[in-house]
Q: What sequence folds into this?
């Protein structure tokens, strides 16, 4: 009875204790709101066309940031040059006043290292929040001469009849680099058809203008559900939970180098006032803690990198990933 009495007392004490108040994200963000900012809509800049994976991620994020902050957010697609136009704008032209936030991806690193020719660097943009990650997927049509073929079948056909299988690429990006790897390792040769983004290539696949497209799950999900496209392989370390029957490229070809994934994150131009930067960071980071937004992102087929989700120094952790990409460029002779 003595122990029962003690246990009862402990339970009563726990039930009677005041419950710690849950932090209110809106209140936390409001505390950081600078005086007289913002006085106009904030632009979320996306450097790829509307409808693609980057655009979808940015628009979902903008909606949640608006809800939390009460600020007006507009998404502006500054396209051209397979991302180069928008990246150059963010790094060299956007005013560092807090009214421009880039919702970008790690494709920026390749542009900065290979195409900017020293005019700007990816470090000219300051990361404020990690958003999500996405793996590149090859898809074929459910109609036509390559219907029902596996990724290994496709590559064998491209080896037997060089330059007859048309593949959509985004020049100077992972869309092109993975093709370089496959050709170098297999002896196959593909006919490369350039596009501004993955979504445009998938549209071309549906129209019969290419035989293989490359993109992210959100870009072809609707066509997959409609039976228009068939996923072939994913450039990730493991199979995707939402497409368990789709092999990785490494599985299909017995390698370990076919890893091409986007890291999406938010940035501001270098020199943005610290109080505005802190406020914008809090708004985006707060949005990224929302369960509904996370669930919506998962529907798009993205995943979340624990290292970046829990980063104490996002810029340093992103730089570490960028250095790995730099090593690929050096290895392949693209960069000295």
A:
């Amino acid at each position: 009875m003595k122990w029962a009495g003690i246990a009862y007392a402990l339970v009563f004490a726990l039930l009677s204790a005041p419950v710690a108040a849950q932090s209110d994200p809106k209140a936390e963000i409001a505390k950081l709101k600078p005086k007289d900012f913002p006085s106009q809509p904030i632009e979320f800049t996306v450097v790829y066309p509307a409808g693609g994976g980057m655009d979808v991620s940015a628009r979902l994020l903008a909606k949640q940031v608006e809800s939390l902050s009460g600020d007006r957010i507009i998404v502006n697609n500054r396209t051209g040059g397979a991302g180069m136009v928008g990246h150059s704008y963010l790094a060299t032209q956007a005013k560092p006043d807090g009214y421009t936030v880039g919702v970008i991806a790690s494709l920026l690193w390749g542009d900065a290292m290979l195409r900017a020719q020293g005019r700007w660097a990816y470090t000219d943009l300051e990361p404020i929040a990690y958003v999500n990650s996405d793996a590149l997927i090859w898809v074929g049509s459910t109609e036509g001469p390559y219907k029902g073929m596996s990724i290994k079948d496709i590559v064998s056909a491209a080896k037997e009849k060089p330059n007859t299988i048309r593949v959509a690429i985004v020049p100077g990006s992972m869309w092109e680099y993975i093709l370089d790897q496959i050709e170098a390792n297999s002896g196959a040769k593909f006919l490369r058809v350039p596009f501004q983004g993955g979504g445009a290539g998938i549209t071309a696949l549906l129209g019969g203008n290419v035989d293989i497209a490359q993109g992210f799950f959100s870009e072809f999900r609707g066509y997959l559900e409609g039976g228009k496209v068939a996923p072939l392989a994913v450039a990730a370390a493991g199979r995707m939970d939402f497409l368990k029957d789709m092999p990785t490229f490494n599985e299909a070809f017995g390698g370990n180098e076919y890893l091409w994934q986007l890291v999406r994150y938010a940035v501001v131009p270098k020199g943005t006032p610290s109080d505005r930067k802190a406020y914008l960071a809090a708004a985006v980071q707060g949005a990224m803690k929302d369960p509904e937004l996370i669930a919506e992102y998962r529907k798009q087929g993205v995943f979340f990198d624990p290292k970046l989700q829990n980063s104490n120094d996002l810029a340093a952790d992103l730089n570490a990933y960028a250095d790995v990409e730099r090593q690929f460029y050096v290895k392949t002779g693209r960069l000295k």
About this structure: The chain has 14 helices and ten strands. The first strand starts at residue 42 and ends at 46. Residues 1-21 have pLDDT under 50 and may be disordered. The domain at 40-132+262-331 is CATH 3.40.190.150 (D-Maltodextrin-Binding Protein; domain 2).
